[in-house]
Amino acid sequence: MDNILGIAVCIFAVLWLIKWTAIILGLALCKVHIAMCLYRGHKADKAVSSPSEDEELCQKKSTGISRRLSYFLRGLKKYELHLVSTIPSHFVRKKIYQYIFGIRMEKTTVIYKGLTVVDPWKIVIGAGSIIGDDNILDGREGIFIGDNVNLSSQVRIWTGQHNVQGKKFEYFGKAVHIGNRAWVSGNVTILPGVTIGEGAVIASGAVVTKDVEPFAIYAGIPAEKIGDRNSDIDYTFEGKHDWFF
To answer: For residue 242, is pLDDT > 80?
Structure first.
């Protein structure tokens, strides 16, 4: 019985070691692939902070092994980002998002669990800003979040979409900007090209299709102005967060 238990423990240990070795190697490949995308983007004089095509450059149409490798790396990034979003350590998650996937953020930025992110190296998050549980940040064309912004749970920010009337289902997109001390409540969707002004509030469940005035309150589908917010605000989030997630 002891021998069987010992063998089971050894098998479990070996499988655990293989799993985490594969994950770490995957993160290293992601780092290399992102560096290549950034290099090609800069080489083509396409700034990462503006609507860019560096991901497309990194995924140029090709055939055979090259194309398969491109799809493999895309899938690997999604898989690794999913794993990172479940790590029960805020400190570890932030460091991986910063130094592996290239999200630009400050020391007091808070990112909770379950983040789904596309092209993270094109995302900038300011000091004291909070990214709530289970958010989606589509960074393909750039997302720029100011200081002390609160994104509640299940916020979706999209920077790219398709032309529903287009013959070729053409893709187009534009960056999203969110001003300082804006509050985006739960289950809000923000569409490409939207700028949310400083101190604005978006009510829960809204779909934001156009720019939002500073210190205004918007609600509905599509979101419309329903009121004004006090503009005399000066609060600062200090980066405090719940443990683990």
So the answer is: yes
Q: Hey, what are 48's tokens? A: 């990462």
**Which of 33, 42, 90, 162 is flagged as catalytic?**
162
- Range with the largest mean pLDDT of 27-36, 43-52, 79-88, 179-188: 179-188
Residues 14-69 have pLDDT tens digits of 887 887 788 888 888 888 878 877 776 665 544 444 444 444 545 444 556 767 77
Is there a single domain that holds both residue 62 and residue 135?
no
Residue 93 in tokens: 């998650």
- The pTM for the full model equals 0.83
Place of tokens 């939207």: 194
Domain ranges, residue 14: 1-85
Q: Does a structural domain hold residue 93?
A: no
CATH of the domain at 184: 2.160.10.10
Query: What residues form DSSP beta bridges with 111?
Result: 131
Distance of CA 117 to the CA centre of its chain: 3
- Asked if residues 154 and 134 have their Cβ atoms less than 8 Å apart, the reply is yes
> Catalytic site residue 162?
yes
What's the residue count for the chain? 245
Give the residue among 140, 116, 124 at the shortest CA–CA distance from 54: 140
Q: What are the φ/ψ torsions at residue 123 (nearest 5 degrees)?
A: -115, 135
Tell the residue number behind the tokens 């749970």, with chain if given. Answer: 153
43 lies in a domain? yes
Q: How many CA atoms lie within 13 A of 210 on its CB side?
A: 9
How far from 53 is each of 17, 38, 60, 199, CA to CA, in Å?
38, 10, 10, 31
How many distinct structural domains can be found in the chain?
2
